[in-house]
Amino acid sequence: MTDSAAPSAGQLDTVQLGADYFQNPLAYFSRMREEGPVTPALLPHGERVWLVTRYPEVRAALADPRLYKDWAGKLTSPDWVPDEVIGYLSVHMLNTDPPNHTRLRKLVTKAFTARRVAGLRPRVEAITASLLNAIEARVAELSSTGGEDTVDLIEAFAFPLPVTVICELLGVPTEDRAQFRQWSNAIVASEGEPGSFRTAGAAMFHYFTELVADKRAHPADDMVSALIEAHDSGDSLDERELIAMLFLLLVAGHETTTNLIASGTLALLTNPAELERLRSDPSLLPGAVDELLRYVNPLNHATDRFTLEPVEIGGVTIPAREWVLCVTSSANRDSGRFPDADRLDVGRDAGGHVAFGHGIHYCLGAPLARLEGEVAFGALLSRFPGLSLAADLATLRWRPSSLIRGLETLPVHVR
Ligand code: HEM
After folding, report:
1. Ligand 1 center to 7 CA (angstroms)
2. Which residues line ligand 1 (CB under 6 A)?
3. Alpha-carbon gap, residue 344 to 184, rounded angstroms
4. Angle ∠(151,264,298) on CA atoms, nearest 5
């Protein structure tokens, strides 16, 4: 189809995503996939976007240089231009295009290679064991006092594991993790609610500014200190880039993995035959982590991209200066690519899923997330044979974020 024959904004019906989108986004996406590869939509808070939903188009769009990440001056709505603090926090690699992106990514790539990350396994195992010990002790205490032996698996395990790992790696005090959770949740939840977004952004910005000043004065054997010193062929990070980098690594390093662990556990508990299969054959674990990533999708879609000129995707022309979202969760449920895609199958070859994105922004933390997932699911299943859901499935609530797909809480019994 040529550009002139391709349907554009005026010809396709715009889909309004209601508040129910947060509870069941896949229902919207599967209808959209049936209609076509690209759909104009209004997010629940009213922002106009173009959603790319079929696997081949999502994968191609993620690697398409005509879709830009650097938002400065590219947004359709001038109201959405972030203020100074948010602008400061946003000069990180996920919001930049080459050549700047190439430069920023190169400065941290070495710290996240599969080999480097494999060296973290003993520490990830130790943190996991201590969190599971704490759960066991708490449940024993609750039972002894005749209380309800229910644990919120997110609070007790799925959140503290990845946040402790990334804090230790960066050299950020782990005591401050509850504070990060609050800021980070506000930042990813409040699209359309600039007030809480800005307050949390400003608080994080001040926190990192002080941390960097402290590490400059007292360098340690950690990544913040290494990034302050980072030089690559004479290149280095300026203060703005450094703070933005820390912000990105901390938020990206736990928001997503928390949801892989929590939503993945829920997926296994609601598919007991698959859970038993995995428990009885731990050699399935590495593949099962990828299948869980495909199935639960800790992110509904990749982060924002923008057009500068009209761009044709799958026969649809998206005009210039529009906001495009590559819906990775939808692509991963496209039966054209993954047969019987709505079925969890821990033995499936889920290779090629796009839960970590694709192209130059492919997740830098993928080896770390896979390691954490493997250790977490392996330990949880072997330690707690009686693990079960402690709430009616219909009462579980998902966080009101367009980007993040994550449960508010996951009440479980562990024995
Ligand atoms: C299950 C866990 C994770 C998932 C599902 C996930 C998903 C993603 C996705 C989809 C992208 C690409 C976004 C886009 O193209 O718009 C991305 C990028 C990124 N992720 Fe992750 N991520 C996870 C864990 C982590 C961890 C543990 C880190 C730790 C540091 C991390 C750091 C990053 C960074 C720095 C980028 C930006 C890369 C770039 O722009 O070149 N992620 N992630």
Report:
1. 33
2. 62, 93-94, 105, 166, 248-249, 252-253, 256-257, 260, 298-299, 302-303, 328, 355-357, 361, 363-365, 368-369
3. 30
4. 110
Please report the atom of ligand 1 found closest to the CA of residue 112: 30
pLDDT exceeds 90 at position 78: no
By alpha-carbon position, which residue is closest to atom 31 of ligand 1?
A: 365
Q: How confident is the model at residue 24 (pLDDT cuts 50, 70, 90)?
A: very high
3-state secondary structure of 330: helix
Task: For residue 16, give the 3-state DSSP assignment.
Answer: strand
Q: Quick one: CA dihedral 218, 222, 227, 230, positive or negative?
A: positive
**Smallest CA separation from ligand 1 atom 27, residue:** 253
Residue from 161, 356, 371 to probe ligand 1 pocket by mutation (most atoms less than 8 Å from CB): 356
Q: Which pLDDT tens digit goes with each residue over 326-382?
A: 999 999 999 999 999 999 999 999 999 999 999 999 999 999 999 999 999 999 999
* pLDDT tens string 97-140: 999 999 999 988 888 888 889 999 999 999 999 999 999 999 98
Backbone angles phi, psi at 413, to 5 degrees: -100, 140
Q: Can you tell me which atom of ligand 1 is nearest the CA of 360?
A: 41
Provide the pLDDT for residue 98: 93
Give the Cα separation of 221 and 394 in Å (integer): 47
**DSSP code, position 232:** B
- Is residue 4 predicted with pLDDT exceeding 90? no
Q: Is the pLDDT of residue 168 over 60?
A: yes
> How many angstroms does the Cα of residue 184 sit away from the middle of ligand 1?
15
Confidence (pLDDT) at 81:
53
Residues in the chain: 415
- What are the φ/ψ torsions at residue 158 (nearest 5 degrees)? -65, -30
Closest Cα partner for 93 from 102, 83, 80? Answer: 102
Q: In 5-34, which positions are buried (b, 16+ CB within 10 angstroms) versus exposed (e)? A: ebeeeeebeebebeeebbeebbebbbebbe
